[in-house]
Amino acid sequence: MSILEFDRVGIELGGREILSPTSFHVEKGQFISIIGPSGCGKTTLLRASAGFVNATGGEVRHNGRPITGPSREVAFVFQDYGRALLPWRTVEGNVALALEAAGTPVSQHRDAIYEVLETVGLAAHAKKFPGQLSGGMQQRVQIARCLAQKPELMMMDEPFGALDAMTREGLQDALLELVAKTRLTVLFVTHDLEEAIYLGDRVVALRANPTAQAPSLAALIDVELPKPRDQLATKEEPEFLRLRRELYQYLGHG
User: I want to staple 189 with a disulfide (CB 3.0 to 4.6 A). Which of 42, 53, 54, 173 is the partner?
Assistant: First the structure.
């Protein structure tokens, strides 16, 4: 059974069709990249899969059960890490929020916090406040907080979009290592074609302003590039360039 199923999912907001009936499935441990132009419904689809938005038609199912609201089995990483963190709490204090929400005994907090901070490479910064960290490190704190709730699924809404190119590439590689280690299932929204291909096992390409002749789902493409991936070697692979060209055609002219 797939861990996540989108069964003819359609979404309307304010009387406007944001997403026309869309169907695809996600297997456990897969990394799914979701791309498309602004306004095509990428974030709305992600929020529906996290239970933040209800589908107007069709159904999103997690382990065969309809998603009717937020769940601790699903974590959500927001793009704006600055607003996602509490500036008056230290790094460990921000991670502790997930444990407090779950009712985890305080006696177990320290070990749980340092386990996830080690995982994201921030154990040495546990006592610092968000304002003392770079943007990339703040985003790692948000990811650590999500990991502390021990989710099955992680939804990531353009988490690296506001970062500089070198920081973004470093976090891409760190994320791939994390996913390989934890077997997390990830849905990752991005505007960047290269990021979508580099990270993904599969790419879901959406188009804006869907019609009966041109529905929201423009393409569903498997990425069969070798792993582990490398920022230089992978992006020079003929298959990488072929996928980039194919997806550009779908999004630019599809």
Answer: 42
